[in-house]
Design brief:
Helix content is 54%, strand content 12%. It is built from 8 helices and 5 strands; from the N terminus they run βαβααβααβααβα. It has a 5-stranded parallel beta sheet, with helices on both faces. The two termini are 30 Å apart. Bound molecules: P1-(5'-adenosyl)P5-(5'-thymidyl)pentaphosphate. P1-(5'-adenosyl)P5-(5'-thymidyl)pentaphosphate binds at residues 16, 18-24, 45-46, 75, 100-101, 105-106, 109-110, 150-151, 160-161, 191, 194-195, 198.
Amino acid sequence: MSTPAVVPGKFLSLEGLEGVGKTTNLEFIQETLQSAGVSVLVTREPGGTELGEALRSVLLHSQHAMQAETEMLMMAASRVEHVATVILPALASGQWVLSDRYLDASLAYQGGGREIGVQRVKDIHTLAGVTRMPDLTLLLDMPIALGRERIAVRNATDRIEAEADPFFERCRSAYLAVAKEDPVRVKVIDASKPLDIVQTKIAQILAPLLEETLLANGRSLG
Ligand code: T5A
């Protein structure tokens, strides 16, 4: 008797500017998936591997000045390791992957914020062999000032958080342009709403994907 083929997992990413609630909602999504019986690997970028975490520390906390292109290439280098050694193997084994930021963050921050251009950032990833996009991206969107208010209680500001509003306006515009270009994959959620409303919306977006996977595995949501 042959063993049943493994159904590959789904790849989800969570995106948005600082303070929009990615970390808060990551936990909610993880719990939602786990209570539906889905095995999920939670990870983040920059980071997600030992080398990626070392690059993260330089990217967010280096005291040295850095060219925009250097920043972009280090983000991409972290991603190459992450995709090859963590994301793809987990998906192939049937696990779902939930990443706190992924390639869209480079399109927004380096392509838009740093004005490198979205297409150049895409081209670098193609060159580096990073072609796997998420099956679903949740883009938490809200005005920059509200994000600043929400994280004002924190003392530490990292190298990128320290940027001024026009930088984040460009990041936000680039994120929204990506969503407009790929509305099937990227779902924009109004993150200025109270948390229960945001999470109801997230659950509604996740439901069809979960149903599809559970049916493929011969189960149902009940
Ligand atoms: N970066 C990253 C790039 O430039 N290029 C890239 O390619 C990648 C991958 C990484 C930095 O690197 C940059 C982008 C970033 O600058 P990070 O680790 O992702 O940084 O961290 P931040 O975005 O800085 O994450 P934050 O922790 O600042 O924000 P979160 O996680 O979005 O927000 P969260 O969940 O901590 O919430 C903030 C506060 O708001 C409350 C929470 O309780 C919390 O107190 N909150 C709400 N309050 C009211 N209503 C709601 N709906 C709320 N949701 C959350």
